[in-house]
Amino acid sequence: MAASNGGGGAPLVVFDFDKTIVDCDSDNWVVDALGATRRFDDLLQFLPWNTAIDAMMGELHAAGRTAEDVRACLRAAPLSPHVAAAVRASHARGCELRVLSDANAFFVGTVLAHHGLAAFFSGTDTNPAHIDAAGRLRIRPYHEFADPAAAGHGCTLPSCPPNMCKGKVMKRILREEEEEAAAAAGRRRRRAVVYLGDGRGDYCPSMKLGEGDYVMPRAGYPVCDLIAAAPPAAAVREWDGFEDQERVLLGIVDGEIARAAVAAAEEGEQEDGGAAAAPPAVSAVVLPPDCRAMPAALLPQAVRVPN
Ligand SMILES: [Mg+2]
Question: Which residues form the active site (predicted)?
Answer without folding.
Answer: 16 (nucleophile), 18 (proton donor)
